[in-house]
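quick one before i forget lol
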Amino acid sequence: MNSRRLPHDRYITAVVDALAAAGLGPTSAETSDSETNRYETGPDAGCITQLQSLLTWDVDAPGLNESKHRTGFVLLWEHPVEQWQWAPCKKPEARKRQPEPLPLHRWADPAAVVDVVRVLLAGLPVPAGGDPRLWLHFVAASEAVTAWASTKNSPQEGTPVTTPIGEALRQAADRATACWTPEPSGPGICSLLSEAAREGRLDEVDLWDAVVTHLGEELTVPWERAPGRTRTNVAAMLRAAAAGVE
């Protein structure tokens, strides 16, 4: 779990405890508040974060039907979404599959989550009907999440905010001299960043994709259309872009 107390930690802990008591505990459980909100499509898209929890059952999880889940699976909790979701674990070289909704409310009773996980582990079809049971403390938790969203993503005027994209851009600037050596007529910076990420030379593939999407037009300028562009001024450009999204 996250080292800092987050508004959904208590609920996720209750879910994990219920799963463990049923002998269905996940291989790992994580909570965070730093993932980019992928559901925001307005002017703040790519610049605000969301609460998230990821429960993972790997291929060695007890009771896992390996013929149905060859790489294991994950359960995903996200505060903009009204339901739990699930997806197969992705292979390192594969892109993330879009998660599918589960018949579980965002604040479903932990016992209801246990029932659905038991079905998933067995490789059976997920029930179509939603389980109406809700966690005993869901009202207080929901209010805490709403308060977090209003303060986390609405900083006081003049307060600097570190966003995932801004941090990624700074990382790009720091690594610019080591991550690529473009030819004069080579691809745009966008392509170079994506390629470096997918080859494992940069961290967090999805974060880098968000970076190049957010700054797509500027980053796709071909090198031959920018005479004199060096890795040094690329780094400067990326740092300036980082300042512009924070």
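fyi The chain has two domains: 9-152, 164-244.
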